[in-house]
C-alpha cells in the first residue's frame, strides 16, 4: 500500500513529537488590542469597513455572550480560558493594497506551499473508491479560499466561478458586496443567541468563507477553505455561510492547521449551511489543528458550532469529518431537517492520541415529514486520550415517517485510553423509525501479530487495521481529501501501539 | 548447515515454563511433522520461532541458516522467509484480502532490498495462485477472513504461503476444521510447494493429514520436549497406540 509506505517513511523522518505543520511564519501582523470589550468588536468591524447593521449585529451578539457562562456538560477538562488574555483579531499586515495572488507576501505563500496548498496531489488509493457519480480521479479543479489567522488572503478561480454564477469569497467581502444575501441568511441557522462559543464568534468573527450557489446550478468545482492560525495568543473565529439555492449542488472542503505552541489557542468557528428545495450541500472537513505535545502541553481548543438547515423540501446536507487534531474538540455538526423529504448525513472519523480529548457527534432534528438521516461515527482512541461520541436524534410531532440509522463504532488502541458513546433519542411521533447500533473493540495483539508475521512493521499493521475500520467513512470523502486524510491518520497514530 | 536449529530451548509464559530444553534440527528440503497431545508445547514452539510477543526465552538458542533468530523482530523473520500458517487466522474487517496480501508482500520485499511489485503484476500473480487453490476471485475482495468458513480461512493461509514463497513454512494444525475435500485441496497446495530449498514443520494431532503430506521426519512432543523422533512409520504407530506411552518418557 503506497500510502502506508509513505506514511511510515514520513513518520520515521518526523519522529513522535513533531507535528508536521508545526512551523511558524514570521510576518508582521496587525492585531487588535488584547482582550474583549465592545471596543474590540468595534475595532474589528471598523477594520473590515463593515456597514452599521453588521456592527449592530455583532454588538448584540457580544451582549448576549456576556449573559452566558461556558458550557460544562461535555466530557472534556481544561483550565479556565482567560477571555481577556486573547487577541481577537490578527491580520497579516499588508504592505499595500493587493490586486492579485502574486502580490501576497511571499512568506505567506511559502506557508501555503509547505502545507501543500493549492497543489494537492491526486493519488489513486488502494481501497478507496472515487465517490459514486464523481469523476474517477484526474486533475479536478479546486477553488481555494485561504484564511491566515483571521483574514482571508487569497481566493482562487474567482472568475471561473463567477461565470457559473457561484459566489465564493471571503465573508468580509460578501458583507460589503452582497449585503442582501448576507443579511437574509446570516444567523438564521446559528442565531446570535445560540451557545456560548457561537455568541462569541458572532461578536468577533473576522473572516471566513461565503458561498452562494444560484438556483439550478451545479457548482463546477470543489470549493475549499484552508484555515491556519499563525499568530501567538490569537483566537481564530471564522464564520462560514453557504447557501445552496433551489435545485443547486455544491461540495465544500475545509482544512485546518496551526503551528506548534506551548500555550493553548482558542478556535471557535461557526458554520451555517442553508439548503433550499432540492438543493444539496456536501461539507467535508479534515481537521488537523495542533494537538499538543506528548506531555499534553499546548494544542488548540476547538469549540465549533456547525449546523445545516435543510430548509427546502427534498434538500440534503451531508457532513463528513476527519478529526485528528486539537487538544480539545467540542463539535457537533448538525442538520435541521425542516423540509419534507429532506435528508441529513453525518460521517465522522475522530482520532485521539496522546492527551487529546474529543467530545464530538451530531444532532439530527427531524421536523418535516418523511425526513431521513444517517449517522456513521468511527472513533479511535489511542495513548491516554478520551474519545466521546455524543449524538442527538429527535423527531417532533409533525415528523411523520422520519427515519434514522446510527452506527457508532469505537476502536481502542492500548489500555490507557477511553471511548464513550452518549446517544440521545427523542421521538414525539409514533411513526418514526430510529435505529442505533454501537460497538467498541480493541486492536488485539493477535491481529497485530498476524500482520507482522506477514512482514509488516508495527506501524504498518496498525495503519492497515485502522484504515479498514474507517473505510466506510473514508469512502465518503472527496478523493483528494481521502488521500490526505489517510496519511494524517497514520501520522497521528504513530507510536500508539507500542 | 541445517536450515533451522533449535538447541536446549527453555520458554516461559508468565513465569511458567512451557518448553523444557527442546531440540530440533530441520535441514533444507525436509518436511517434519510434530505430533503430540494438547498442551505439549507445539503451538508455543511455532510462536517462539516466529517471534510472537509474550514468551520469555530463558535458555537456549534458535539458529536460522546459522543466524541468531532470537535477535530479530517478527517482521524481520518474516522477511527472511519464515512463514506461519495460523491455527486460528484472525479477521480484519474493512481490509480486503487483496490489499492485505499486497501490503504484506511488498513489506517483505522492501525489507529484503527488493522493489515492490507493481499493482498489475501483483494482481496477476495473486489471481493465478488463487485459481490453483480453488479460491474464487470474490474472496480476494472481501475483508481478510471476514465471514470465511473454516476451510476458506485455511485455504487463505495456504494462498499466502504460496504467494510469499517462504523458506521455512510452519503449519499449525492446518487440518483442523477441514472436511475431507478441503483437506485434499490444502494438502495439494502444500505438496506443490515442496522443494529442495524449502522446509516445512507440520504441526498436527492426527495422522490423517500425513497421508497426504508425507513427512521425512516425525517428532513426538510431550510436556515441552521432543521425546521421540522417527520416520513416517512413527505417525502410524501413534495413531494405533495413542500418546499415553510418551507421557512417562517426558
TrEMBL record, chain A:
<dbReference type="InterPro" id="IPR055346">
    <property type="entry name" value="Fe-S_cluster_assembly_SufBD"/>
</dbReference>
<dbReference type="Pfam" id="PF01458">
    <property type="entry name" value="SUFBD_core"/>
</dbReference>
<feature type="domain" description="SUF system FeS cluster assembly SufBD core">
    <location>
        <begin position="227"/>
        <end position="469"/>
    </location>
</feature>
<dbReference type="InterPro" id="IPR037284">
    <property type="entry name" value="SUF_FeS_clus_asmbl_SufBD_sf"/>
</dbReference>
<dbReference type="Pfam" id="PF19295">
    <property type="entry name" value="SufBD_N"/>
</dbReference>
<protein>
    <submittedName>
        <fullName>Iron-regulated ABC transporter membrane component SufB</fullName>
    </submittedName>
</protein>
<dbReference type="InterPro" id="IPR010231">
    <property type="entry name" value="SUF_FeS_clus_asmbl_SufB"/>
</dbReference>
<dbReference type="InterPro" id="IPR000825">
    <property type="entry name" value="SUF_FeS_clus_asmbl_SufBD_core"/>
</dbReference>
<dbReference type="InterPro" id="IPR045595">
    <property type="entry name" value="SufBD_N"/>
</dbReference>
<feature type="domain" description="SUF system FeS cluster assembly SufBD N-terminal">
    <location>
        <begin position="162"/>
        <end position="218"/>
    </location>
</feature>
<comment type="similarity">
    <text>Belongs to the iron-sulfur cluster assembly SufBD family.</text>
</comment>
<dbReference type="GO" id="GO:0016226">
    <property type="term" value="P:iron-sulfur cluster assembly"/>
</dbReference>
Automatic annotation (TrEMBL), chain B:
<dbReference type="GO" id="GO:0005524">
    <property type="term" value="F:ATP binding"/>
</dbReference>
<feature type="domain" description="ABC transporter">
    <location>
        <begin position="4"/>
        <end position="248"/>
    </location>
</feature>
<comment type="similarity">
    <text>Belongs to the ABC transporter superfamily. Ycf16 family.</text>
</comment>
<dbReference type="InterPro" id="IPR003593">
    <property type="entry name" value="AAA+_ATPase"/>
</dbReference>
<keyword id="KW-0547">Nucleotide-binding</keyword>
<dbReference type="Pfam" id="PF00005">
    <property type="entry name" value="ABC_tran"/>
</dbReference>
<dbReference type="InterPro" id="IPR010230">
    <property type="entry name" value="FeS-cluster_ATPase_SufC"/>
</dbReference>
<dbReference type="InterPro" id="IPR027417">
    <property type="entry name" value="P-loop_NTPase"/>
</dbReference>
<comment type="function">
    <text>Involved in beta-(1--&gt;2)glucan export. Transmembrane domains (TMD) form a pore in the inner membrane and the ATP-binding domain (NBD) is responsible for energy generation.</text>
</comment>
<dbReference type="InterPro" id="IPR017871">
    <property type="entry name" value="ABC_transporter-like_CS"/>
</dbReference>
<dbReference type="InterPro" id="IPR003439">
    <property type="entry name" value="ABC_transporter-like_ATP-bd"/>
</dbReference>
<keyword id="KW-0067">ATP-binding</keyword>
<dbReference type="GO" id="GO:0016887">
    <property type="term" value="F:ATP hydrolysis activity"/>
</dbReference>
<protein>
    <submittedName>
        <fullName>Fe-S cluster assembly ATP-binding protein</fullName>
    </submittedName>
</protein>
Amino acid at each position: 500500500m503506497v500510502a502506508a509506505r509513505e506514511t511510515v517513511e514520513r513518520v520515521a523522518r518526523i519522529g513522535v513529537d513533531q507535528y508536521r505543520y508545526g512551523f511558524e511564519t514570521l510576518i508582521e501582523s496587525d492585531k487588535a488590542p488584547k482582550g474583549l470589550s465592545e471596543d474590540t468588536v468595534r475595532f474589528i468591524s471598523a477594520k473590515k469597513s463593515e456597514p452599521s447593521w453588521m456592527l449592530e449585529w455583532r454588538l448584540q451578539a457580544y451582549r448576549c455572550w456576556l449573559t452566558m457562562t461556558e458550557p460544562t456538560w461535555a466530557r472534556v477538562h481544561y483550565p479556565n480560558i482567560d477571555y481577556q488574555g486573547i487577541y481577537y483579531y490578527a491580520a497579516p499586515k499588508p504592505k499595500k493594497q493587493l490586486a492579485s495572488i502574486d502580490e501576497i507576501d511571499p512568506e505567506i505563500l511559502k506557508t501555503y506551499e509547505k502545507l501543500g496548498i493549492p497543489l494537492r496531489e491526486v493519488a489513486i488509493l488502494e481501497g478507496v473508491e472515487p465517490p459514486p457519480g464523481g469523476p474517477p480521479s484526474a486533475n479536478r479543479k479546486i477553488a481555494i479560499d485561504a484564511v491566515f489567522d483571521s483574514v482571508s488572503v487569497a481566493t482562487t478561480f474567482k472568475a471561473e466561478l463567477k461565470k457559473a454564477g457561484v459566489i465564493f469569497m471571503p465573508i468580509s467581502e460578501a458583507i460589503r458586496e452582497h449585503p442582501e444575501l448576507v443579511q437574509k441568511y446570516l444567523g438564521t441557522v446559528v442565531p446570535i443567541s445560540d451557545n456560548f462559543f457561537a455568541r462569541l464568534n458572532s461578536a468577533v468573527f473576522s473572516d471566513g468563507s461565503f458561498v452562494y450557489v444560484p438556483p439550478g446550478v451545479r457548482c463546477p468545482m470543489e470549493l475549499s477553505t484552508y484555515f491556519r492560525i499563525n499568530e501567538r495568543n490569537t483566537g481564530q473565529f471564522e464564520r462560514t455561510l453557504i447557501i445552496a439555492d433551489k435545485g443547486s449542488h455544491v461540495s465544500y472542503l475545509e482544512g485546518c492547521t496551526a503551528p506548534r505552541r506551548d500555550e493553548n489557542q482558542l478556535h471557535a468557528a461557526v458554520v451555517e449551511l442553508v439548503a433550499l428545495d432540492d438543493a444539496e450541500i456536501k461539507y467535508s472537513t479534515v481537521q488537523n489543528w495542533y494537538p499538543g505535545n506528548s506531555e499534553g502541553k499546548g494544542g488548540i481548543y476547538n469549540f465549533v458550532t456547525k449546523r445545516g438547515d435543510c430548509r427546502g423540501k427534498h434538500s440534503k446536507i451531508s457532513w463528513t469529518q476527519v478529526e485528528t487534531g486539537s487538544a480539545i474538540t467540542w463539535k457537533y455538526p448538525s442538520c435541521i431537517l425542516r423540509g419534507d423529504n429532506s435528508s441529513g448525513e453525518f460521517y465522522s472519523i475522530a482520532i485521539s492520541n496522546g492527551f487529546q480529548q474529543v467530545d464530538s457527534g451530531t444532532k439530527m432534528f427531524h421536523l418535516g415529514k418523511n425526513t431521513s438521516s444517517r449517522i456513521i461515527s468511527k472513533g479511535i482512541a489511542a495513548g491516554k486520550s478520551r474519545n466521546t461520541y455524543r449524538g442527538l436524534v429527535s423527531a417532533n410531532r409533525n415528523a411523520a415517517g422520519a427515519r434514522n440509522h446510527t452506527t457508532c463504532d469505537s476502536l481502542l488502541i492500548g489500555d490507557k485510553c477511553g471511548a464513550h458513546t452518549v446517544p440521545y433519542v427523542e421521538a414525539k411521533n409514533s411513526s418514526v423509525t430510529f435505529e442505533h447500533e454501537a460497538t467498541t473493540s480493541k486492536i488485539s495483539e493477535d491481529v497485530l501479530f498476524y500482520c507482522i508475521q506477514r512482514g509488516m512493521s508495527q506501524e504498518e499493521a496498525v495503519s492497515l487495521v485502522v484504515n479498514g475500520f474507517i473505510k466506510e467513512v473514508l469512502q465518503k470523502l472527496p478523493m483528494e481529501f481521502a488521500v490526505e486524510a489517510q496519511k494524517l491518520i497514520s501520522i497521528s497514530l504513530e507510536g500508539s501501539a507500542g | 548447515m541445517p536450515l533451522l536449529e533449535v538447541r536446549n530451548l527453555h520458554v516461559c509464559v508468565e513465569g511458567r515454563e512451557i518448553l523444557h530444553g527442546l531440540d530440533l534440527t530441520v535441514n533444507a528440503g525436509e518436511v517434519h511433522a510434530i505430533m503430540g497431545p494438547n498442551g505439549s508445547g507445539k503451538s508455543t514452539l511455532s510462536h517462539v520461532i516466529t517471534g510472537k510477543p509474550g514468551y520469555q526465552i530463558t535458555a537456549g538458542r534458535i539458529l536460522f541458516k546459522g543466524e541468531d533468530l532470537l535477535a530479530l523482530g517478527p517482521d524481520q523473520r518474516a522477511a527472511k522467509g519464515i512463514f506461519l500458517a495460523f491455527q486460528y487466522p484472525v479477521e480484519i474487517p474493512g481490509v480486503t484480502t487483496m490489499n492485505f496480501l499486497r501490503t504484506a508482500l511488498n513489506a517483505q520485499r522492501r525489507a529484503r532490498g527488493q522493489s515492490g511489485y507493481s499493482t498489475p503484476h501483483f494482481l496477476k500473480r495473486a489471481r493465478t495462485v488463487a485459481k490453483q487453490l480453488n479460491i474464487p476471485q470474490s474472496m480476494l475482495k472481501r475483508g481478510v477472513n471476514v465471514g470465511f468458513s473454516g476451510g476458506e480461512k485455511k485455504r487463505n493461509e495456504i494462498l499466502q504461503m504460496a504467494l510469499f514463497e517462504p523458506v521455512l513454512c510452519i503449519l499449525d494444525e492446518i487440518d483442523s476444521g477441514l472436511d475431507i475435500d478441503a483437506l485434499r485441496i490444502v494438502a495439494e497446495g502444500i505438496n506443490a510447494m515442496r522443494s529442495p530449498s524449502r522446509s516445512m514443520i507440520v504441526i498436527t494431532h492426527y495422522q490423517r493429514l500425513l497421508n497426504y503430506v508425507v513427512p521425512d521426519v516425525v517428532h513426538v512432543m510431550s510436556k515441552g520436549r521432543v521425546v521421540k523422533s522417527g520416520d513416517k512409520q512413527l505417525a502410524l504407530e501413534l495413531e494405533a497406540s495413542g500418546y499415553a506411552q510418551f507421557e512417562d518418557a517426558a
